[in-house]
Known about the structure:
The protein starts with a strand and ends with a strand. The chain is an alpha+beta fold. Strands 1-2-3-6-4-5 form a six-stranded mixed beta sheet, covered by helices on one side. The longest helix is centred in the middle third of the chain and has 19 residues.
Amino acid sequence: MTEISRLHTSPRASMIVRHGDVIYLSGQVAQDADTDVQEQTRSTLSRVEALLSEAGSSPSHILSATIYLRDIANDFAPMNEVWNAWVPDGQAPARACVQAHMARAALRVEISVIAAVID
Length: 119
């Protein structure tokens, strides 16, 4: 059986779960929620990248991403500007983007990813 490892685990969730050669990150949000959606997206992607690195992966190895937006009508285009600049050329993952009620009112974006381990 393939081992499952968990990092940064609380009673509720783990920030990183690794099962074989696949890494699952919990939803990440911005350090500072008192900023616009573009800055929140930059901050969130920075956190995603740091966790991927810690787990043995990178943005170019993301298999799937789910993006949650508080206000998809107003925030989809500005979030995508930041996302498009961050995703390595030719390495776009499968992706879903949905509108969601956020855990805190100030949050505008949350991103969770599944990635492959770097060989």
